[in-house]
Design brief:
Rossmann fold; 13 strands
Length: 309
């Protein structure tokens, strides 16, 4: 039985990952500051004997040392998300994402943790025009959030080089699924569109709608985390996407089809820090950890609509 620590356990990705770990028999400690995470996200595991939740901040060194004791594997999901939010408040994003990661890795080193999987982001690629994105491309982070995620990666890679911890950084490409909040000014595009369209309102597109994304269903991200931890590799940065490219206008068409609606989008000015095109080359992740997406974007949208209907 593996003793694991999940940071950001009450968040969107962290709660799904926690659920999968408990289901497979791990003993799990979940920590979350409950800034963007919600206790309701952990409802399925709250009464499990193998799960313990601690409300706390990853920047708290004493707490991190306490939680890392006797832990073999850490899944580091805690962060202040959102490119637009980071543009408005770069200090908080940088402090939580960068200082928090350094604090956690320092505690992991002292505790002798074997494996740390950290959440990164496709936003580190910036406006690099070539697609799909390959891990060997030079990062061009264009927002405080993207820069903080690149720094997170580098801290993890140094922890492998300096301390021998098996570290893997996963560059997520537009993860979506149940428990993703639509009720925030920084909401991701799919829950934001879905909430408006279910209410009979037109979705709002920032820009012309021809920008593309690699929308990746949550089950794929969970599988990638488990595979990365189990692979016994270190010092690796891996793209985690579906390997598909869909325009924002195409997303509206897909949602209309699944919902049975015919709502035309509204357009407004582009947002600062948003990249134009993004899709993942996942060949390296397949070679290193055996990652292959199990759910494509169409079936992911269908699952989301059925689950949250």
């Amino acid at each position: 039985m593996t003793q694991t620590l999940v940071t950001g356990a009450a968040g969107f990705i962290g709660s799904h990952l926690t659920e999968a770990l408990v289901d497979r028999g791990d003993t799990v400690i979940g920590v979350d500051a409950l800034v963007t995470g919600r206790r309701a996200n952990m409802e399925s595991v709250n009464n499990a004997e193998a799960f313990q939740f601690v409300e706390g901040d990853i920047r708290d060194g004493e707490l991190m040392r306490e939680l890392c004791a006797d832990v073999q594997t850490i899944y580091h999901q805690a962060a202040i998300p959102s490119v637009p939010r980071s543009v408005e408040d770069p200090v908080t994003t940088t402090d939580v994402n960068c200082v928090g990661t350094a604090t956690l890795l320092d505690a992991a080193r002292d505790a002798g943790v074997e494996t740390v999987v950290v959440a990164s982001s496709s936003s580190v690629y910036g406006s690099e025009t070539a697609v799909p994105k390959v891990e060997t491309m030079v990062p061009q982070p264009e927002s405080p959030y993207a820069l903080s995620k690149y720094h997170t990666e580098q801290l993890a890679m140094q922890a492998h080089a300096l301390y021998g911890i098996d570290t893997v950084a996963l560059r997520y490409f537009n993860i979506f699924g149940p428990r993703q909040r639509p009720d925030s000014p920084y909401a991701a595009v799919i829950p934001a569109f879905l909430a408006r369209m279910r209410a009979g309102e037109r979705p709002v597109i920032y820009g012309d709608g021809q920008q593309t994304r690699d929308f990746t269903y949550i089950d794929n991200a969970v599988r990638a985390n488990l595979a990365a931890a189990d692979a016994g590799v270190g010092g690796e940065v891996l793209n985690i996407g579906a390997g598909e490219q869909l325009s924002i206008t195409g997303l509206v068409d897909l949602l209309n089809d699944v919902l049975g609606t015919s709502l035309a989008p509204e357009h407004t000015e582009p947002r600062e820090g948003d990249v134009r095109h993004s899709s993942a080359d996942i060949d390296h992740a397949e070679r290193i950890i055996g990652y292959m997406p199990a759910v494509d974007v169409i079936n992911g949208i269908r699952r989301l609509v059925c689950t949250t209907g």
